[in-house]
Each structure stands twice: as structure tokens, then as C-alpha cells.
């Protein structure tokens, strides 16, 4: 999440933004414009800003960590424009509208927001949008240009330990994606209690944070993720993800961080 400003000394947030009722893009544009104003214009600007006294919390739309055409030909620029630019943006904007009306949820980090609004399986209205924002940020970072190679070193060892072989893991992940009904996600997660990797399917917006698992890789199974490139051919999309898009670099970094919370014995992922 983009940190723009925080107007409260007791604001507990590092990943949230406090601002006026204007949307993030307007705030950024106006703050840039103010630097070039004369004193008279600044004074008028300050007077105008005083009229916008309501402070609300909102999240920003985070960009994928690559250009929108960087995953071609396996995921088109058009898909990224629609999936990130419209669907993901829509979740962010809908969440911000909900949070503006809910003081109780004010001050939560995104992880807290997801866990709190999941409400032990009886989700509050904010849950779907909050989880979908988090899920999509995580999904973009689960892919990379030139992805899909074999994982290496520690994460490969952990996969071989928990799935017998990388080929078996790949088969199970694809099978999970193809047997998932309707819209949802498939995940490679690290189970905290069992201290092992596992494949998990979730419906709609649900993600493994609600069970305290640590996500390592995710694949979006909503049709909006693949219909422009693959029509209704989910199998082709899932195989393409595994063979050409999945980022084992991101997975290795996530595993390295996860080992700070889950003791897997000898460090399997060298920490730089
Ligand atoms: Fe999606």
C-alpha cells in the first residue's frame, strides 16, 4: 500500500493512508501543484482545504511489479489493463467507500482487516473487498516475466520433502486449480502448525490468512483472470501459469521471511 500521509500522532498505521474525502489521485495531484503556487494562491488553497475537514482512511491501488505488457505472450497487456486496472481497482475503491462509513475498522492494517472482517467464517460486508485487494497484490507478485522455471535450492528441497517431487507438486497444484468450482484461488501455503507446504483451494475472496497459514504462491481462478486470453480454457491458463509465469524468486523470498515465524530446522533459504 502506498503511504501518502498521516495526520494523527496516534495513528497505528504504516500501510494505510489518512486523507481528506478526495480520492488518492486527486490528493497526489493537488500536493504536487501546491509547490508551484504563490502565497495568495496557497492561502486560498489552505482556506479551501479547511472546508474538507472530514478525515477518512483509504488504501491505494498498488501497481504490479512489472509493466502491463511484461507477461506477454502468456498474459496479455489487455488482460492486465482490465484485471488490474478495472477489477482490482474496483475492489480498492469499493473498500475505501465501505471504510469511510465504519469507524470500528478504522486503524486496521490490511492483514488485520482481513482477519477481523472474516469474523470466524461469518464475513462482514468489508471482507470481500479487503481480501480481494490483498489477493490481487499477492497474485501480481506471484508472477514475473520469464517465470515458470524450476525452483532452486531451499524451496525446491522443501517442495520435494512435502510433495515427494517437484513434478508431483506441479501435478497436484494443477489438479487443485482444475477441480476448484466456480470463482476462487489456489495457493501454495506454509502451514504454521504442521510446518510443511500444502496446496489449498479457497472460494471467492477467502485467502489463507484467515486460517493463519502463510501464503507462498497464488493463482487467481476467477474467469476475469483468463477469459480475454484463454476464453473458458482454464486448463490452458493454469498450465501456462505453471510453465511460464509463476515466480519462484518471489516464492523463495516469501519462504525466507516465513522461516522467521516457522521453524523448519536448518535454514533452507539463505537469507541475504
Ligand atoms: Fe482477479
From TrEMBL:
Residue ranges constituting the Manganese/iron superoxide dismutase C-terminal domain according to the UniProt record: 155-253
Domain (Manganese/iron superoxide dismutase N-terminal): residue spans on this chain: 59-143
Cofactor dependence: Fe cation
Keyword match Metal-binding: yes
Known EC number: 1.15.1.1
Protein keywords: Metal-binding, Oxidoreductase
Matching PROSITE patterns: SOD_MN (PS00088)
SUPFAM superfamilies assigned: Fe,Mn superoxide dismutase (SOD), C-terminal domain (SSF54719), Fe,Mn superoxide dismutase (SOD), N-terminal domain (SSF46609)
PANTHER family referenced in this protein's UniProt entry, alphabetically: SUPEROXIDE DISMUTASE (PTHR42769), SUPEROXIDE DISMUTASE [FE] 3, CHLOROPLASTIC (PTHR42769:SF10)
Family of this protein: Belongs to the iron/manganese superoxide dismutase family.
Protein name: superoxide dismutase
Lineage: Eukaryota, Viridiplantae, Streptophyta, Embryophyta, Tracheophyta
Amino acid at each position: 500500500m502506498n503511504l501518502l500521509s498521516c495526520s494523527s500522532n496516534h495513528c497505528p498505521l504504516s500501510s494505510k493512508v489518512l486523507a481528506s474525502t478526495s480520492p488518492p489521485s486527486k490528493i497526489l495531484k493537488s500536493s504536487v501543484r501546491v509547490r508551484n503556487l504563490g502565497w495568495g494562491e496557497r492561502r486560498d488553497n489552505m482556506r479551501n482545504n479547511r472546508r474538507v475537514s472530514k478525515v477518512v482512511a483509504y488504501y491505494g491501488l498498488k501497481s504490479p511489479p512489472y509493466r502491463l505488457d511484461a507477461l506477454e505472450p502468456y498474459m496479455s497487456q489487455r488482460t492486465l489493463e482490465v484485471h488490474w486496472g478495472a477489477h482490482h481497482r474496483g475492489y480498492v475503491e469499493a473498500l475505501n467507500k465501505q471504510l469511510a462509513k465504519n469507524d470500528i475498522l478504522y486503524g486496521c492494517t490490511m492483514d488485520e482487516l482481513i482477519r477481523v472482517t472474516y469474523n470466524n467464517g461469518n464475513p462482514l460486508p468489508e471482507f470481500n473487498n479487503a481480501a480481494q485487494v490483498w489477493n490481487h497484490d499477492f497474485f501480481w507478485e506471484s508472477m514475473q516475466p520469464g517465470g515458470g522455471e524450476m525452483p532452486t535450492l531451499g524451496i525446491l528441497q522443501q517442495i520435494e520433502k512435502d510433495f515427494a517431487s517437484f513434478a508431483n507438486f506441479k501435478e497436484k497444484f494443477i489438479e487443485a486449480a482444475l477441480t476448484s468450482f466456480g470463482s476462487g484461488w489456489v495457493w501454495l501455503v506454509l502451514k504454521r502448525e504442521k510446518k510443511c507446504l500444502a496446496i489449498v483451494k479457497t472460494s471467492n475472496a477467502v485467502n489463507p490468512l484467515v486460517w493463519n497459514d502463510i501464503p507462498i504462491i497464488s493463482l487467481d481462478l476467477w474467469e476475469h483472470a483468463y477469459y480475454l486470453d484463454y476464453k473458458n480454457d482454464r486448463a490452458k491458463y493454469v498450465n501456462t501459469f505453471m510453465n511460464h509465469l509463476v515466480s519462484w524468486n518471489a516464492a523463495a523470498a516469501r519462504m525466507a521471511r516465513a522461516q522467521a515465524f516457522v521453524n523448519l530446522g536448518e535454514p533452507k533459504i539463505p537469507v541475504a
